[in-house]
């Protein structure tokens, strides 16, 4: 006889562990954060095991929870598949492809193009997962990851694109300084993105490195609005708050629509992106179809430089 388990509580735990956030789990499950917290406490009482360590506003999985969360996720996937089969769906005729990308790359690079993929591959259901850190990206079980670092995981790694980093601002900001690149770089407010310290390439430029490269000196390099995600910094730049070091994968649409303009030359070192996938997978055909599609999109894109 199977032990009766609280499935709703298990779903709340798995969603919180995967998102590393009670609030994000609540959004995914369409409930309140309070309800998610209650379900987790219920599961902890049921198991007599602590699942999370709460540190101020952050939560971390305990060792016991970390060792089992992936198996729980797979079990929930199996339940979903079984329910789909009972509903008489065409699940067996379709394929699910799990793709991970940073929040910014998913929003600004993938999303504008995904409709085209759904037209070309109507038999594949995409499952897009976003991450904010290297640790979060590599802990997820994915068919494809889009990364801007060389992972040490045992996976197939293929070059995707090289990304330019170039100063951009709203047209009104450029006009305020006479559309003069040096005047803009010397006097316009600077916007900053605080990148997670995940061992990424130390040559990735910040304002100090960029301005030094082009011989421009400023005493206020540490001033200006700061953001923890590139997406919000792009919106701030479009709104005229200041100048950002724009990443070509993310600013393409804003440049095409005239919401942003280039201020000066790009940084001389480009940042590479890679496609990472398992060496062995039962989903190999779908993985290859997605790779072929995204590489074609990269090659046909004038602002993104294929490796």
From TrEMBL:
It holds the Pfam family HTH_1. Residues 5-62 form the HTH lysR-type domain. GO terms for molecular function: DNA-binding transcription factor activity; sequence-specific DNA binding. Keywords: DNA-binding, Transcription, Transcription regulation. Gene3D superfamilies: Periplasmic binding protein-like II, Winged helix-like DNA-binding domain superfamily/Winged helix DNA-binding domain. One of its GO terms (biological process) is DNA-templated transcription. It comes from the Bacteria. Belongs to the LysR transcriptional regulatory family. This is LysR family transcriptional regulator, glycine cleavage system transcriptional activator. It comes from Alloyangia pacifica.
């Amino acid at each position: 006889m199977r032990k009766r388990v609280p499935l709703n509580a298990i779903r709340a735990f798995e969603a919180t562990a995967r998102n590393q956030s009670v609030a994000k789990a609540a959004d995914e499950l369409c409930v309140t954060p309070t309800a998610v917290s209650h379900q987790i406490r219920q599961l902890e009482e049921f198991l007599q095991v602590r699942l999370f360590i709460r540190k101020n506003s952050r939560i971390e999985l305990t060792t016991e929870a970390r060792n089992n969360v992936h198996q729980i996720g797979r079990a929930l996937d199996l339940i979903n598949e079984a329910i789909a089969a009972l509903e008489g769906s065409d699940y067996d005729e379709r394929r699910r492809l799990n793709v991970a990308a940073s929040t910014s790359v998913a929003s600004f690079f993938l999303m504008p193009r995904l409709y085209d993929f759904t037209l070309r591959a109507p038999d594949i259901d995409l499952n897009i997962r976003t991450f904010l850190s290297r640790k979060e990206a590599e802990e997820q079980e994915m068919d494809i990851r889009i990364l801007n670092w060389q992972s040490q995981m045992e996976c197939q790694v293929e070059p995707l694109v090289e990304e330019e980093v170039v100063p951009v601002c709203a047209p009104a900001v450029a006009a305020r300084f006479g559309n003069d690149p040096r005047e803009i770089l010397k006097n316009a407010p600077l916007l900053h993105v605080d990148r997670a310290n995940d061992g990424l390439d130390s040559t990735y430029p910040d304002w100090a490195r960029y301005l030094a490269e082009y011989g421009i000196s400023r005493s206020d390099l540490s001033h200006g609005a700061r953001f923890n995600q590139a997406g919000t910094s792009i919106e701030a730049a479009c709104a005229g708050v200041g100048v950002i070091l724009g990443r070509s994968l993310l600013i393409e649409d804003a440049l095409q629509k005239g919401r942003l303009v280039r201020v000066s030359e790009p940084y001389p070192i480009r940042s590479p992106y890679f496609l990472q996938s398992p060496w062995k997978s039962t989903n190999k055909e779908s993985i290859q179809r997605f790779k072929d599609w995204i590489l074609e999109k990269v090659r046909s894109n004038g602002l993104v430089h294929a490796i």
